[in-house]
Amino acid sequence: MSMHDPLKPLFDVEEMEISFGPQHPATHGVLRVQIKLDGERIMEAKPIIGYLHRGTEKLFETMAFPACIPHTDRMDYVTSATNNQGFCVAMEKLLGLTIPPRAAYIRMILAELQRLASHLVWLATHAIDIGAITPFFYTFRERDAILDLFEEYCGARLTLNTMRIGGVPFELPEGWLDRCSAFIEAFPKHIEEYETLLTENRIWKKRTIGIGVIPAEEAIEMGMTGPPLRGSGVEWDIRKVFPYDRYDEIEFDIPTGKNCDTYDRYLVRMEEMRQSVRIIRQCIEKIPDGPIMAKAPKVLRAKEGMVYASVESPKGELGYFIVATEKGTTPYRCRVRPPSFVNLQALPQLVEGALVADLVAVIGTLDIVLGEIDR
Amino acid sequence: MPEAVLNLLLIPLIKIVVLLGVVLLIVAYLTYAERKILAYMQVRLGPNRVGPKGWLQPIADGLKLFVKEDLIPGGAERFVFLLAPGLIMVPALLMFAVIPFGEPFKVGGRTITPYLADVNIAILLLLGISSIGVFGIILGGWSSNSKFSLMGGLRSAAQMISYEIPMGFAVVSVLMMAGTLSLVGIVEAQRQAHIWFVLPGILAFGIYWICGVAETNRNPFDLPEAEAELVAGFHTEYSGMKFALFFLAEYANMMVISALATVMFFGGWLPPFPNLLAGLWASPVLAWIPGVVWFAAKMGFFLFCYIWFRGTFPRYRFDQLMAVGWKWLLPLSLANVMLVGVLMLWWKG
Amino acid sequence: MPVKEFFKTLVPVELFQGLGVTGAYLFRKKETVQYPEKRLEPQDRFRGMFGYSLERCIDCHLCAKACPISIIHIKDHTEVEEVEGPDGKIKKKKTKVIDRYDIDVKRCMFCGLCEEACPTDEKSIWLTTKSYEGAVYERNEALYFDKERLGSWEGFVGFPGVKAPAEGQLPSDPLGKKKAAEGGA
Question: Fewer CB within 10 Å, N side or C side of chain B?
Fold first, then answer.
């Protein structure tokens, strides 16, 4: 196409430095990207984080194990159920608890519903960044239905606090499974609606195909996980490779992309939504009766040791590394491996030489949540 | 009262007042319509609190913008900063002077034309004036002393210049068919041709419409004010009434583009197939419909399309926009001029 | 570019399909809920505003311990009363009296762990009150509830139909619907 090297300025001009954010409509929170521009071309992009730092990891050290769970809600506030799940899975590994099957199935349903909700938020914001404003309202309508289900189950809509170490706190309300299955049966139709608006749309394709390309090897080197990694063609899903809860009893596929670009990551996430529907459908069929909490003492005391356990959050691998002292009631240290934080690393590489508009698309496709990045 | 005073001063003055009033009112309510239609497309209700069904919303908006503090950012080029909104608003309103809204009608034995002037080079005039509007955007973007505004202004300059050319060629094919530059003449030519120009000039219409959307900086070509990238583009730093002027000018431009599309391709104030179905239009049920209503209906449809597009499409990237303009629309419009020429030769000869 | 591709590019079918979707929505039912006139009723488990029953509370401090951010402040003292037993002997009876049961509602994150920790049969501290309009102008005073205010909800307007805890609100049934149904049956 163009004859000259896109990274070399055409004329001897001064670079323009722009602080993109922290208050900017497209940075999804308080991300600040310092970009150096030659005209509209990005010469260098530097993400600057820390505007939402609340010291969650340090907070964990001061509070009893069960009391940590509401705080995990507030890291990735779009997917609080999977955050809860990650912490609980790690703690159960530390304490050697096995959760009853019914609890595991409830957890999986909640986590997959949360994955749907999170992907819907991603689609909404990604589309609105690229200029399509209407999918935002359609996706939020469906997300609202999911939040209604959450509200009925645990009483909250966003910061759910819906799992406990050793199980789940509540029995399912009467008729909840029916309402849930009614929702997921209706949901694929809505996905088709979004796809009619976007997938084949030539403008959407132009804005996403070939944008933010990262080959598989580099994505792995960067430590990327979740849809950004799968969009590069790597079949890596914690639910399959290190199954937790009862994901080993469920059948589902891992969608992968080929071209490693924004469009493929979009397709991967759309397919993931369909797979989530499939998982929920199976869970509803298979859910057994029984207790919902493992037998655990009222006050949890850990043995000395450390543990790392991770779950597949909608954004990628969400890991908790917990160090405990003998008979301690609080974590000695809790380190969270947030997927958004690690995926954000790739931003400078993804946008180098691209245009300003691509930066917006790439931020959207990485699906970052600043609450999780800064913690 | 001397006849000359009446003809040259009073009647034009009344017409100007009526035209300005109607145009500004429509522009104000176009913002209301946009919010309402977008809301309905997005399973929302839209403004419905101010007045019944929100009918007073545009007035409330106007009042709010009017009493708002008028900020001038530090380091701004004061004079140019103040000049820019006027520079975009005046041409936008000026263009309405030559647009024919309906047939001449008689009031008290006097023939009144529902347009200010039937200029014999109306289209050239319109293309010329619409190019002035871009200065308002560039200067506004530059004088704000903001990087986002500057980028918006520059984008706008490039965009408007590159889309004016295919638009011009699309208009040329209409001129060839009509054989006149006067807008009234174009409508009359369509009456004589028994057919709206959109049928022979479907390609020209497509090109004109795409360029028109791009000229008015509307989605999917709203790059100068792409909010996800440039916050609000060239008017990021404008507030209060100055912002309102930019806003109104954008909608006035939309109206001009729609009105031109109506005049050039859809027979202006003529009903569909004015001659073939002449019997039907002369029937007592339909005969009372004045030409202005036909005009308004067609223009309304195009304005609706503007809003519809905004509700549906993503936004092009800057370089892609340029590619669409130069690599697709320009060659197509040139080919279209050729095609129309050949067809006309074949038709007449 | 093949001819077919060229015409595919020229006639934007997929764009018209998109227009069809948004156009069809013009006539669909709208999702908006006109808020102040119409209020959505929260679900039964909805965690809204605190309810507290001084009578049921056994002063065990479990809620304060469960609270992740320690916003439940309890102070008590033991009163010793000399009571004559049935056999005539004078016995010392100890009762715990709650002096202070304060919840700093403005800092609350509505996790509901206090309610879960409460050991009484009908919970004595509960969040499931279906009330969600807690916005105030001055939060330091308006959103600091002591034990009287927790019961009376002075200065707080509950969800329409919800009574204050002191007027007999039950944690499992804040609207009194189940009670009415039982009473009717």
Answer: C
